[in-house]
Amino acid sequence: MNHSNTKRTFSREKGQRDALLKTLSVSLIKLGKITTTEAKASSLRSIVEKLVTKGREGTLNSHRLLAGKIGTVAANKIVKDIAPKYKDRKGGYLRITKLSSRINDGAKMVQIEFV
Predict the structure, then answer these.
(1) Which tens digit of pLDDT belongs to each residue from 98-108?
(2) CA distance 100 to 14
(3) Which end of the chain has fewer beta carbons closer than 10 Å to its terminal beta carbon, N or C?
(4) What is the CB-side half-sphere exposure of residue 19 using CA atoms within 13 A?
(5) In the chain, what are the domain boundaries?
(6) HEC string for the chain
(7) How many CA atoms lie within 13 A of 48 on its CB side?
(8) Shortest CA distance to 78 belongs to which of 18, 25, 23?
(9) Mean pLDDT of 71-77
(10) Strands across the sheet with 33-37, in order?
């Protein structure tokens, strides 16, 4: 049975949803912090934390896996800059801070950043 196995769909098809989360994760890795909606940030958190954990290994295989998922520029930044900072940390690399609601549609906005 498929009870309680739903993901957030963001009113998008699978390809569009995957592209959205990929571009959000690349932007977060390159910039260090981004402002987005609460639902997108909570979905993005699990994806990026898994990428950082994979980057902490520092092996050629993990580097190639990251480059295949998010591109070489973002993969290099994870392996060389971000992952060494969290070498002794077991998890929880990201912080979500709530901001005021968006004016035009009232969506709950947050800022997601590396700790």
Answers:
(1) 999 999 999 99
(2) 29
(3) N
(4) 5
(5) 14-32+39-90
(6) CCCCCCCCCCCCCHHHHHHHHHHHHHHHHHHCEEEEEHHHHHHHHHHHHHHHHHHHHCCHHHHHHHHHHHCHHHHHHHHHHHHHHCCCCCCCCEEEEECCCCCCCCCCEEEEEEC
(7) 32
(8) 25
(9) 97
(10) 33-37, 109-114, 94-98
> What is the C-alpha to C-alpha distance for residues 7 and 92, in angstroms, rounded to an integer?
21
pTM across the whole model: 0.92
Q: How far is CA 93 from CA 6, 20, 32, 38, 103, in A?
A: 25, 21, 11, 17, 30
Select from 3.90.1030.10, 3.90.1140.10, 3.40.1190.20, 3.30.428.10 the CATH code of 14-32+39-90: 3.90.1030.10
- C-alpha distances out from residue 20 to 76, 83, 97, 103, Å: 21, 23, 21, 22
Which residue bears the tokens 């070489």?
Answer: 72
Closest CA to 84 of 104, 113, 57: 57
